[in-house]
Write a structure and sequence with these properties.
Strand 10 (about 315-320) and strand 11 form a beta hairpin. The strands form 3 sheets. A 5-stranded mixed β-barrel has the order 4-7-6-11-10. A 4-stranded antiparallel sheet has the order 2-3-1-13. The protein has about 600 residues and is α+β, with helices and mostly antiparallel strands. The protein has helices spanning about 5, 10-30, 40, 60-80, 105-110, 225-230, 295-310, 345-360, 375-405, 410-435, 440-470, 475-505, 510-540, 545, 555-560, and strands at about 45-50, 85-90, 95-100, 115-125, 170-175, 250, 255-265, 270-275, 285-290, 315-320, 325, 340-345, 365-375.
Length: about 600
C-alpha cells in the first residue's frame, strides 16, 4: 500500500506553508523583523563572572546565583547603562552584556561582587617605597585641619607621598546629614598602636594574627605580630580571607596605599540606601548614606568610638572584596542613622561609590573570567564578514549540488532556502521571547549547519540512486530509498544535536551561542527533510523530466552507470515503425 507521502505529498507541503505563515505572522504582530545582535556584532562589553566556592568547600546554590544576578543588574542599571543584559549560565556563571565600548569603570564595578564591610583603620602606609623616609604611624601632622560638621570642600587635604593615619589618604570626611554633632560624645579609650618592627626575611606571606575572642570589635588592638606582618605586607599578596571577625590587610584600588584594618564593625546589609548628589547651596559632590535601624545604632556607636580617638586614629574604611574603596575621617559622633561622605569627589566617583555601597552586599564572591570589548565599527565588520562567509559556504554547496546531482540540485537549493527562512524567523522570535542574541559564534554555528543540511541531501540522494541501480523504478526508489535513508539522517542529526546540548551545558560565554544555533539548525534540518525535501522529490519523480531520466535530471542512465532505467526499453528493442502502405490511385480494387 502506498504511503501518505507517496500519494499525497502536498499535505506535508501545506503544513510547512502554515508553519511559515504562522512564524511571520507573529513577527508582524510583534513588529519584530530583525534578530537581536550580540555585542560582538554591534559593539559593547561582555563580562563573564565565575562564582567562587563557599567557605568550607560548599557549592553555590541556584538561589544565591539568582540573588547575585539581581543585585548586579541593579548595580548596572543604577550606573545609567541602557539595554544591559545580565543572565546566569550554568551553575556558577553570570554573564553581563553591556552595549557600547569603553566600559572600564563598569567592569571594575561589576567585578566587585563580594561582601561589603566597614572597618577601623589602625595604620596606613605607602604601598611602594618613597624617597622621603616615612615617620611612625602615630605621628600627628598639623597640616590636616579638623573638619567641621558642615560640608566644606576644604575640610580635608590630599595625602602627600608619605602616608599617615591622620593624613586622610583620599581626602574625605564623615559628617552628620543634620549638620549637628553630639555635644557630649561618650569618651572611648584610645587604643595604643605600636610602631611596626622590621619584618623577618623568612616570612613568605604577611597575614594578620587572629585576635583574642571579643564580643566588641571596637575594642580590638593590633598586637606586635600583626604590626610586623603588616610592615611586610605588599599589595597583591594572597593568602588572606575577608573574614569580618578578623583584622585585614588591604590596599586601595590603585594599589598606592596599604591599610591595617580591624575586624568589621558594620556590614553592607546595615545600609538601607546610598545616593550621590550636590547639597543645596554647595558645589562639591558627596555621597549620602542611610542606615537601617540596627545599622544606625551600630554606626552611632562606631563614630563615638572613632571620633574619641582624635586626630591620627579617626579613619573609617569601606572595604569591598578585600579592597579599600574609601577611607573617610570621623570628627564627631553621628546620630540619626544618616550620614554624608564629603571630599574632592568628581560626579563619576561619587556615583560609583554610592552605587557600590547600595548594591555591594552579595551572597557570594566572583572572579572575572573574561572581559571582551568590541567597538561598534569592529562589530559591524564582523557581522559583514560572517554574512559573506555564510554566502560563500552556501554558494559552494549549491555549486557542488548542480555539478554532481544536476537537476536534483533544485531540491538542494529549495530546501536550503526553506531552512534559511525558518532559521531566520526562529532567531528573530527567540530573541524577543527569551532574549537570544545572535553572536559571531552563533553565525559560525549557522554556517556549519549548511554542511549538516547538505549531508542529509547527500544521504537521501545516494540511497535513491542505489535503489535505481538495483533495478527498481524511480517512483519505487523514492520510497524505498527514503525508508532506509531517514534512519541514517536521524542518527546523524541526533549526534549533532547531542553534541550541541553537551557543549551548551558545559561551555560559557559566546561558545554557548555556537552550541545553541547548531542545535537549533539541526532540528530545523530534520523538519525540512521530512516535510519538504522528501515530498518535493516525490512530486518531481512524477514528472517526465525526472521520471524518464533526462540527461540533465541527474537520474539519467549514463550518470547512474546503468544501461537504462527500470521500465525503460533499450533503443534496439523498440519495435520498428511499420511503413504505411500507399493506396492505389484508382481506389479500392
Amino acid at each position: 500500500m502506498a504511503t501518505t507521502t507517496t500519494s499525497r505529498p502536498g499535505r506535508l507541503l501545506i503544513v510547512l506553508g502554515v508553519i511559515v505563515v504562522l512564524l511571520f505572522g507573529i513577527m508582524g504582530l510583534t513588529k519584530t523583523w530583525k534578530p537581536k545582535l550580540g555585542l560582538d556584532l554591534r559593539g559593547g562589553t561582555t563580562i563573564t563572572l565565575t562564582a567562587k566556592s563557599l567557605a568550607g568547600g560548599g557549592s553555590v546554590t541556584a538561589d544565591q546565583l539568582n540573588e547575585a544576578k539581581n543585585i548586579i543588574s541593579q548595580r548596572v542599571n543604577g550606573a545609567g547603562v541602557a539595554e544591559a543584559d545580565i543572565t546566569t549560565s550554568g551553575r556558577d556563571h553570570i554573564n553581563v552584556a553591556v552595549p557600547g565600548a569603553n566600559q572600564d569603570s563598569l567592569v571594575k564595578q561589576v567585578g566587585q561582587t563580594a561582601l561589603l564591610y566597614f572597618r577601623i583603620v589602625y595604620d596606613a602606609q605607602a604601598a611602594a617605597p618613597v624617597a622621603a623616609p616615612s615617620p611612625t604611624p602615630t605621628t600627628k601632622p598639623s597640616t590636616t585641619p579638623k573638619p567641621s560638621t558642615t560640608v566644606k570642600p576644604s575640610t580635608t587635604v590630599k595625602p602627600s607621598t608619605t602616608v599617615k593615619p591622620s593624613a586622610t589618604p583620599n581626602g574625605r570626611a564623615w559628617s552628620s546629614v543634620l549638620g549637628q554633632a553630639d555635644p557630649t560624645p561618650t569618651p572611648t579609650p584610645k587604643p595604643s598602636t605600636p610602631a611596626p618592627s622590621t619584618p623577618a626575611a623568612s616570612t613568605p606571606v604577611a597575614t594578620p594574627s587572629t585576635p583574642a575572642a571579643s564580643t566588641d570589635p571596637l575594642q580590638y588592638v593590633p598586637d606586635a605580630a600583626t604590626q610586623t606582618a603588616f610592615a611586610a605586607y605588599k599589595c597583591g599578596d594572597e593568602g588572606q580571607t575577608d573574614d569580618p571577625n578578623k583584622p585585614l590587610f588591604a590596599c586601595d584600588r590603585e594599589g598606592t596605599y596599604k591599610y591595617l584594618l580591624g575586624p568589621a564593625i558594620l556590614k553592607g546589609t546595615d545600609l538601607s540606601d546610598a545616593s550621590a548628589g550636590i547639597p543645596q547651596g554647595g558645589f562639591q559632590w558627596q555621597v549620602n548614606l542611610e542606615f537601617t535601624g540596627e545599622g544606625g545604632d551600630k554606626f552611632l556607636k562606631a563614630t563615638q568610638n572613632i571620633s574619641a580617638r582624635g586626630q591620627g586614629q579617626n579613619l573609617f574604611a569601606i572595604v569591598l572584596d578585600s579592597e579599600v574603596i574609601s577611607t573617610p575621617s570621623v570628627e564627631n559622633p553621628i546620630p540619626g542613622g544618616q550620614a554624608q561622605i564629603t571630599g574632592t569627589f568628581t560626579e563619576a566617583e561619587a556615583r560609583d561609590l554610592a552605587n557600590v555601597l547600595k548594591y555591594g552586599a552579595l551572597p557570594v564572591s566572583f572572579d572575572i573570567s573574561s572581559v571582551e570589548t568590541v567597538s561598534p565599527q569592529l562589530g559591524g565588520d564582523q557581522l559583514s564578514a560572517g554574512i559573506w562567509a555564510g554566502i560563500a559556504g552556501l554558494g559552494l554547496v549549491v555549486l557542488f549540488s548542480f555539478l554532481y546531482y544536476r537537476g536534483l540540485g533544485i531540491v538542494v537549493v529549495a530546501s536550503l532556502g526553506v531552512a534559511a527562512v525558518l532559521t531566520y524567523a526562529s532567531v528573530v522570535l527567540l530573541g524577543r521571547a527569551i532574549g537570544f542574541t545572535l553572536t559571531l559564534a552563533g553565525i559560525a554555528g549557522l554556517i556549519v549547519a549548511i554542511g549538516i543540511t547538505a549531508d542529509s541531501f547527500v544521504i537521501y540522494f545516494e540511497r535513491l540512486r542505489d535503489e535505481v541501480r538495483e533495478g527498481r523504478s524511480l517512483r519505487s526508489s523514492v520510497e524505498t530509498g527514503w525508508a532506509r535513508a531517514k534512519h541514517t539522517i536521524i542518527a546523524a542529526d541526533s549526534i549533532s544535536l547531542l553534541a550541541a546540548v553537551v557543549l551548551y551545558i558545559l561551555a560559557i560565554g559566546s561558545v554557548r551561542g555556537f552550541a545553541f544555533t547548531l542545535g537549533l539548525t539541526t532540528l530545523i534540518d530534520l523538519l525540512v527533510v521530512f516535510i519538504f525535501t522528501k515530498p518535493l522529490v516525490t512530486l518531481l519523480a512524477r514528472t517526465d523530466f525526472f521520471g524518464h531520466g533526462h540527461k540533465l535530471s541527474g537520474l539519467d542512465p549514463e550518470h547512474l552507470g546503468v544501461e537504462r532505467l527500470p521500465g525503460q526499453m533499450k533503443p534496439s528493442a523498440r519495435p520498428a515503425k511499420r511503413p504505411s502502405t500507399p493506396k492505389p490511385l484508382g481506389g479500392e480494387v
